[in-house]
Amino acid sequence: MRKTDRYYVEHANSLWMIYKTVSFWKVVKNFIFIQLGRYTPFLGIKNWLYRIFLRMNVGDRTAFALMVMPDIMFPEKISVGSNSVIGYNTTILAHEYLIKEYRIGEVLIGDEVMIGANTTILPGVTIGDGAIISSATLVNQDVPPGAFAGGNPMRVIYTKEEMEERMNGKKD
Hints:
The protein is an alpha/beta fold. It contains 4 helices and 17 strands. 35% of the residues are buried. The chain has a single domain (5-167), classed as Hexapeptide repeat proteins (UDP N-Acetylglucosamine Acyltransferase, domain 1). Helices cover 22% and strands 26% of the residues.
């Protein structure tokens, strides 16, 4: 189960409440720095922009590929460990606006995590250290450390122990 805070709304769908949940000017500022980060080829500058202007927790030597889209409304709820790779065009959401409610949750990505291209990570998810997420995955639940996961809906394909066996060439 994803760890999110739920806020119920009445009348119109929750997206109509957007600027009651987050400042318009915060979204404008975040949009500008996310767009700069999405296109800059310099990883150090990208991480600096995300740390300073978006207040994201980004570890040393982490690499955000071209076109990665951090949450525009609550990027400060995203934490990525050291030496991780976030693949091309990945979206990391810390919010979701639904008809009768909206949800906000932290996204915690561990150290030495590999996230394949075109992946979407939903709010309230934790991805453990050393996990590998295949391309085009919808990460809708926690991923254990060292696991290999993928698909839509996502499932754990190999556990850490099975991955270690495969890497060491052992067979059943």
